[in-house]
Amino acid sequence: MSDSTDSRLKDDRRFVPAAEFSKHARVQSHAEYTSLHERSLSEPEAFWREHTQDLVFRKPWTSFQDWKSPDAKFFLGAELNISESCLDRHLKSDARTRAALVWEGEPGDSRTLTYFELHREVVRLSAALLDLGIQKGDRVGIYMGMVPEAVIAMLACARIGATHSVTFGGFSADSLRDRLNDCEARLLITQDGAYRRGNIVPLKQMADEAVLQARTVEKTIVLRRVGRERAPVEMRPGRDIWWDDLMARTPSPKSVERAMKPEAFDAEHPLFILYTSGSTGKPKGLLHTTAGYLAGVHVTSKYVFDLRPGDLYWCTADIGWITGHSYIVYGPLSCGAACLLYEGAPNFPDWGRFWSIIEKHGVSILYTAPTAIRAFIRAGDEWPQKYDLSSLRLLGSVGEPINPEAWTWYHRVIGGGRCPVVDTWWQTETGSIMLTTLPGACYSKPGSTGLPLFGVDIEVQKDSGEACAPNESGTLVIKRPWPSMARTIYKDPARYAETYWAAKNGSYVTGDGARRDEDGYFWVVGRIDDVLNVAGHRIGTAEIESALVSHPSVAEAAAVGRPDDLKGQALVVFVTVKSGIKADRALKDKLTEHVDKEIGKFARPDQIRFAEALPKTRSGKIMRRFLKDIAAGVVETKGDTSTLEDFNVLANLRKDDDA
Question: What is the pLDDT of the chain when averaged over all its residues?
Fold first, then answer.
């Protein structure tokens, strides 16, 4: 980064994309972005007709939208098969021999599938599923690691009209069982085991436990990944089938014909059910349908990541989450992108793994999470500096608010000061990205998720439903339906209506707190339930965490509330320090003074607790509910801990209660 760029970031916290980048970008100016966004709201039918022309519709749509709150339908009258937009259409161009998936296994094995090869594998599995009796409308569970066959399974289900429900491979057998039962899956696709930091996650073993109590599952398909010596499995005759054996069978001519020339489905045909956490403790099965979801992820993939031929795009999420669905599978593949998949952890065998993969494969676009970025900061700049990252031209952030210091490090150290950073805000429920800054058109403000995307009518509201003034905090709401939105909670439409649409006069309530600044940029501060009320002051935990991480001694921070008789809630922060820093009382005093300066004395933590590590999921997300229990003195951990990466972290935190 040049000195002038450093100065600009320090002075007005803006990053203006380089003229050379804007010159070749899909959207090249703020005026062009504004025109497109305004048209998407004022003339939505014309906008979406123009921007979905490259997708495959067997039957065109006759009406753009039907909205009777909370029920929405889009692209009425259309018929399509989503796999044709992701696969078949590319076989008619030079994309046929272009890489679709570039896979890197944790042990170092790798594999590339062209669009022709991916199409062939999807067709073969589609025919095999049809021969097993799986039909349109059936539900299929997928419980796999980050292997190409997981993508093949999703696309094969979509090709035959079966609704897939992917469960993240870090979930427990009980969690998988509950999801299979809720969606009434007829089939489960899994694998013998998955690699994780040199260890084996016994997926088949956990799948067996789940299926014993999954009343509707008839068959289980098992991929050999790690082998009998690493993961011995029991195959139940009549129920369990090895993937390779299934694919080696000669399918019936009728199934082959139906797989090669797949049926077209209604625009609102259920594509997938994806479960996300609910405040009641019962996971919510968000149902996404076909045409609207495809339109949303296709257009956002194209414009947000500025995808071009020759790019190698890497989204580091797991396909078990919505980010993997939208921005590994359906969005990028519908654009003909080359997508990198990585099976393992970001720090195995060491903290250079991500950077070595970028160097090895020539990754040009990296889309990852702030939690990972902060962990990389803590590991030290020397790791990325060992590798050639010059192939990168665009960086992205997803999953939670990114603090300005992490944004700046990401831009400076990983992007070399030259790569635009697209911070993105969206949810499982929204299906596609709602807020960001288009990389060639709009300047970025580190820490801000930016501006609304096409078709997104969004504002920050007070509890009364009035719009907040600039820089006034409130609730982030979306004022009208949009194509990629989830249509309902599976088998619980009343919960869907009450959770998302009942509180704000027909607007969608995101559950996130935010403010909009004088330039129209949105700053999302995190979940409303992560906004603390301390002595009458509303304090966003993300704001506290950002202030702490801006201190040069702090690598990572998590803020939670604990019950307090006087204040209502007391503020407790858990802090990990950078290598070589002494965590002592003097540093606690310095951090308290730093928060005073950055936010104000009203935000001063009541307790600062140093930690070697914070409790995280296997995907890298901090599990704040456990920290809340520890802060409140709860002795026993309750709730599902199956996604916790390291159970020792909780034990160590409970030992260290010297506050």
Answer: 91
How many Å apart are CA 430 and CA 427, to the nearest integer? Answer: 5
Question: 21-30, 423-432, 499-508, 620-629 — which is least confidently predicted?
Answer: 620-629
Task: Give residues with Cβ within 8 angstroms of 580, minimum separation 6.
Answer: none
Q: How many beta carbons lie within 10 A of that of residue 67, not counting itself?
A: 12
Residue with tokens 């489905």: 265
Please say whether the dihedral angle defined by the alpha carbons of residues 99, 104, 105 and 109, taken in this order, is positive or negative: positive
Measure the CA angle with vertex 370, ends 365 and 376; round to 5°.
Answer: 85
In this model, does residue 620 exceed pLDDT 90?
no
- Backbone torsions φ then ψ of 599, nearest 5 degrees: -120, -50
**Domains of the chain listed by start with CATH number:** 3-82+288-468+475-490 (3.40.50.12780), 116-274 (3.40.50.12780), 535-655 (3.30.300.30)
Tokens of 171: 């979930």
116-128: burial string, b at 16+ Cβ within 10 Å, e else: bbbbebbbbbbbb
The answer to whether 183 touches 288, Cβ cutoff 8 Å, is no
| pLDDT tens-digit readout, 70-127 | 999 999 999 999 999 999 999 999 999 999 999 999 999 999 999 999 999 999 999 9
H or E stretch at 515: strand 508-516
Lookup: tokens for 454: 């096409």
| 198 to 150, 392, 406, 657: CA distances (angstroms) | 20, 28, 28, 32
For residue 135, the SS3 value is coil
Q: What is the pTM (predicted TM-score) of this model?
A: 0.86
- Tens digit of pLDDT for each residue in 530-569? 767 666 566 778 778 888 998 999 999 999 888 877 667 7
**Do 182 and 232 contact (CB within 8 A), yes or no?**
no
Q: Nearest to residue 524, comparing CAs of 406, 404, 400, 422? A: 400
